[in-house]
């Protein structure tokens, strides 16, 4: 009986020693989340928050050296996304062409280092078949805009006519402002908006094209609806010399 107890004691001691050694090993384990970035688009390209019509969107960024970078579009889960990597300063640069479907595409980007640590980021890419804005005035966040500004919006394709004022909104903190019936140039695909009254001085305004809450939305000739687009500007007194 005593010998059995001794063997049990030895076995328990060995198990405890293994647990202690395992614990010590865990404390030295690399648990640092690997670096991962998604670059902003180049100048002149639409921001990632803007809708696109293209069937693919190119994404790029940086990651920790040696990390495995993977991309997955949850809306097209069965479509693999190829990722290319090359050495960069202090890490590696990655690039991928992501297929996108019509609608909101949730894209997951993960970097996994050699120790198995994961850094995950998500972004939404929206693809539409409706019209997009290619230009507008005043510029977004413009200041010093006169109280009788030229408010224009240019589309990337022909839109259905007649356009109605309800398809556009001009807002300030005080509420919506009236708009005359919009003018439209089919050659340049540009709409001109004219407020029914002069704007107030030193006031911020927001222009909304094809508001999501409006019953009348901007559509192309095939009936595809334009997603809401807005921008802001601020008026000020224009001093002429």
Summarize the structure.
The chain is mainly beta.
Describe the fold and architecture.
By secondary structure, the protein is mainly beta. The chain folds into two domains: 36-127, Sandwich (Immunoglobulin-like); 133-235, Immunoglobulin-like, CATH 2.60.40.1220. The protein is built from one helix and 16 strands. The chain has one helix at 2-27, and strands at 36-38, 56-63, 68-73, 83-88, 91-99, 103-112, 118-127, 133-137, 142-145, 151-155, 168-172, 175-177, 183-185, 190-193, 204-209, 229-235. Strands 9-16-15-11-12 form a five-stranded mixed beta sheet, with no helix packed on it. It is elongated and about 70 Å long.
Label the overall shape. Answer: elongated
Overall strand count: 16
| Sheet with most strands | 5 strands, mixed
Strand order of the largest sheet: 9-16-15-11-12
Q: Features of this protein?
A:
Immunoglobulin-like; 4-stranded antiparallel beta sheet; 2 domains; 5-stranded mixed beta sheet; 241 residues; single chain; mainly beta; elongated; disordered N terminus; 16 strands
Topology:
Blueprint: H1 2-27, E1 36-38, E2 56-63, E3 68-73, E4 83-88, E5 91-99, E6 103-112, E7 118-127, E8 133-137, E9 142-145, E10 151-155, E11 168-172, E12 175-177, E13 183-185, E14 190-193, E15 204-209, E16 229-235
Parallel strand pairs: 9-16
Antiparallel strand pairs: 1-2, 2-5, 3-6, 4-5, 6-7, 8-10, 10-14, 11-12, 11-15, 13-14, 15-16
